[in-house]
Design goal:
Layout lengths: L1 E10 L9 E9 L4 E6 L3 H7 L5 H16 L5 H4 L3 H8 L7 E3 L3 E5 L2 H13 L6
Antiparallel strand pairs: 1-2, 1-4, 1-5, 2-3
Length: 129
């Protein structure tokens, strides 16, 4: 079993209201250097909170998180960070339309199985096709 940390990525269409839609997971395993993000944005839920939400910008921001986790297209400063340092940078508190939950920890043997479990439990809704 390996220790992992994760945070839920939230889309907050109206920051002043604090309402959010869980959109994905950032998962880090220090032992293996595993750092991944997975997203399943419920655009209808975002639009329910803000009909004029800029979904293109939201998708671009989520895509940037995924690229940062994967180590693709990084700025010079991010490229010098270890995966663990990038995790901490990604989950630092923000007051923007893309935020993360507090960091949570667990133990698992296969990080992809852990990611799938977290996505099913924390992000995907049963009432959605």
């Amino acid at each position: 079993m390996q220790h992992y940390d994760y945070a839920v990525v939230r889309v907050v269409p109206r920051v002043e209201r604090g309402e959010f839609v869980n959109a994905g997971i950032i998962l880090s395993n220090t032992t293996s250097g595993w750092l991944r993000a997975c997203f399943d944005l419920d655009e209808a839920a975002v639009r329910a909170l803000r009909p004029d939400a800029d979904l293109e910008s939201i998708r671009a921001a989520l895509n940037a998180i995924e690229h940062t986790c994967a180590g693709r297209n990084l700025s010079q400063a991010l490229a010098q960070m270890t995966p663990r340092e990038r995790f901490h940078w990604l989950v630092s508190p923000r007051s923007t339309s893309i935020q993360t939950s507090p960091v949570h920890s667990g133990y698992g043997s296969d990080m992809q199985v852990v990611m799938d479990h977290l996505m099913a439990r924390m992000v995907r809704r049963a009432d959605r096709p």
